[in-house]
Amino acid sequence: MEEKNYYSLRFLGSNAFHTKGYVLKTTNKILNIGETADCEIRYEAGQYEPELYASIIANDDGESWRLVQRSPHVSSHIAGSGGFSYVHQLKDGDVIGFGNQTMELEFHVQHDSNYGRTGVVVEQRAGKRMMAGITTAVVLIIAAFAAITYFAFSDKNSSDFTYEELTDYLSSIYITKVDSVQWIHIAHGDTSLVRPTLVMEGGKAAGTAFLTTDGKLVTARHCIEYWIGEEIDLTVKVREMKDDDIKKWAILSEKFMQEREDEETSQLLCVFFSIYDEQMPDEPVFRYRSVDSCVHINRSHDGILQLADFSDDYYWRTVRPYYSNQEMELGDIVYIDVDMTGSIEAADSAMISKLSQSSSIAVLGYPNNSSGKKATFAAGTIKENRADTLNRVSPDLQFDANITHGFSGGPVFIKTEDKGIVVAGVVSKIDTDNGIYKKAVPITEIYNMNETGKEDEQ
Amino acid sequence: MNSKMTIKSVAGYCFESALWKILLDLSKDSEDRKDKDWQIVTPDNVWIEGEDFLVANNGLQVPLKEFYPPEGIENLDEAGMVWSLGALVCYASSGHCIFGGSGGAYQRCHPAVELPVLRKEHCALTPLVQKCLNYSPAKRIRLKDIHTAAIEGLKASKMKKRVVIEADQPETKDLVNVSNDVWPEEMGN
Lengths: 458, 189
Known about the structure:
The complex is a heterodimer. Chain A is mainly beta. Helices cover 12% and strands 34% of the residues of chain A. In chain A, β5 (52-58) and β6 form a beta hairpin. Chain A is elongated, with a radius of gyration of 28 Å. Chain A starts with 5 loop residues before the first strand and ends in a 10-residue tail after the last helix. Chain B has one domain (5-163): Transferase(Phosphotransferase) domain 1 (Transferase(Phosphotransferase), domain 1, Orthogonal Bundle). Chain B has helices at residues 7-10, 16-26, 78-94, 103-109, 126-132, 143-157; strands at 46-49, 52-55, 177-178. In chain B, β1 (46-49) and β2 form a beta hairpin. At the A-B interface, β6, β9, α1, β12 and β13 of A face α2, α5 and β3 of B. β14 (205-211) of chain A pairs antiparallel with β3 (177-178) of chain B.
């Protein structure tokens, strides 16, 4: 049998996934170490997003290995020789450690007859160790489930809102659904369809809307233009996208608009959407097109993600893009002028500015496409008031109510001394940076909005 | 085994701030360089020393043609080095040479070829890299401007770690509900 070098890693400590003294023998071309599911050597993830720490990679000769740092956050180090920034040539006897994790790995180059025909050395004790690992994992899952249950059902916020207080407003809460998206061509006032129907990814988008006392039907912009804020795979060329990819058409229409100098001709994505009452889930109360003059879409935070010049495909209008973090930022609001009034009064900026951490809030919405049922109630508290539009590009209110998909566009109620219960914000998104908080756009944004998106670009 | 580590050792596995550091280190002292100092940077002649990326002296390694600019290396100037630097960052990001390994020779034959776009994790560097790889030497970004951009990029790339969201919530960027229902009837023309 061919004898080649392979390497072993001895675990000098233990954690949920590995036992002290366990020896992993392998010739893997790439062996990942970290917290992610694709790591052969797995550490427990803490409160942060799981990370890949480092990889052991075979050199070109196939019989020596290097340790490559994969994370800017969790440093790798070699006992006795300290840390390294990017890569370390592994030597027999190296003891590898990561960040503050206590478990260390002892690296040894092996050369004996255990080298398998396939190049992978089978670890004989794997079955027993695997059972121990599975048992430990089951215990952890049960513990995690218990913890989640505890936190989900315990009274962790001090909101003094009750569902009964909001029953007067239920008649002003609606469901929004996108019916179709069409690509239209407008030339000198005449409209024609370029593509009659664009198939949407995943089906219909649905959210919540509400009607104010001054006749504004308010929702989140991404409930209508649901592709806004979606991450774009920039490695995919427009012509390589699938025919049913809505982003393709959004990019193409944006590109067309960028290249046209005359304002007499334009090509737009037109969203047809409907507003439903919970009493009549099958018959829309209103139907609109996003290009209707009564539909006011906040484009004040739009920017152009410019990755090339005008001759290239990479054009995209999105909401305040950041290259490394293309999350939707706020300004995520739409209102429609309607010929009726609701019961929900909008807060003014003075009321919103008084909101402080722990101020009570409540949200009404239709989660998980729950049309035909009463609006769902969720109470919580303000976690951060960042509605100061003078100082912020994207004013928002952060809160901690237990909400999920479908609440988007729903009202965030607050209590005021002067006017009782009023709406302070529009539910927008989960803040993935800060984890548990949700964000709402201050209702006052509807008075600040710039629908063209041009004047505010910087 | 030569234990000297080069960019080749980390190509395809770099995180964003490492790429910015490559640009930062290889663009420094640009004002002090004389004509003979311009050189093609390739994975083999950029060494990793601790936290720094160092260029080996001219002649120590034969430059790979994959990193030659489209105008060639006769009368190599700053623009030529900038082009190879852009190609090097693409290589460090992906582990592959640009233009299928044909380098600037391919761009010379196809001046309008689309410039590479770095993968999602490194897309912040794409505009800068594309300015390095401009077909026209006169239109390429200057080294000192790369240095300035790299300082900012390095600073911006030091992101905070992201806290895991609630375990029963899918990681999603927004709260819009997307169902798989059939479409309603079409509306109007």
